[in-house]
């Protein structure tokens, strides 16, 4: 079943995937049909002289038609290094060789190709040709994002939400999602709507949530249209969507105008208008439940707006599922033991998405 409004319920989870230099993410099957990407190096006007590669030998397995591409890569041409790496990752025209792909993506990233850094992040995140290394993945996502790679900005936002390879930082995820939304990623705008509507940053702000849902809806995002209609009473599928009031959404997309610094995230607060019942047992139990709900959001098991500290039938069902899965007493009640074990449990394959939204 679809997890409506869940931050991690974002994109097709078909993985592994590597992106071509035009930022289009492809599965290995799709990669097999591509032509070498032309690519573009950041700041072409300031491109330094080419640095020939002397520590990677020619690959005698390559077909003759790739001889020129390999020669250009060895001569230090960044676009050729990226495209050769892409072909090694595809395994069609060139032999599939993930370690070799990592070598050439690394050279291309060092020479200023943002998409090469993005692809390295994907490979380290998914353990393609190397051990999984979430910290390296985050570092390469950050490198690509700094160079303007929209999907890297988006995946960096997911890393902050998940606390994978970095400290969990909801404020940092907001900044990254805003940058991605401003770069044209509708799912990032939708996720911002979800975050502002939830209590992840403190008290819910349905005004900001509606603004960001509107941004995503204008790009055709179906769930954003539904969320906007729910908050405003306007059916975005049959009525023209008016721009967000003022320039607030645009300002926030650049990371400006947010009054919640990453280092000063407010604790989540209970929503007094929520008709759902708080956890029994007082504030401590409510705080515990909220932490468990947040952990379940990270695992992709619970919609993010449900992380309120209020017990709902859905939360109770998910808790019972995890209690059974972890060998605990199945009573649907929050506990520190349950929280610790949920956090320690590996995420399912489709709950962390590192490909293009």
Features:
two-stranded antiparallel ribbon; disordered C terminus; 357 residues; mainly alpha; single chain; 4 strands; 2% strand; 15 helices; disordered N terminus
Task: Describe the protein's architecture and organization.
With 357 residues, the chain is mainly alpha-helical. The chain contains 15 helices and four strands. It has helices at 28-31, 67-74, 78-90, 98-110, 114-126, 134-146, 150-162, 170-182, 186-197, 206-218, 222-232, 248-253, 283-298, 313-325, 336-344, and strands at residues 18-19, 25-26, 277-278, 310-311. The strands form two sheets. The chain has a two-stranded antiparallel sheet with strand order 1-2. Strand 1 and strand 2 form a beta hairpin. Helix 2 (67-74) packs across helix 3, helix 6 runs antiparallel to helix 7 (150-162) and helix 13 (283-298) packs parallel to helix 15. It is elongated.
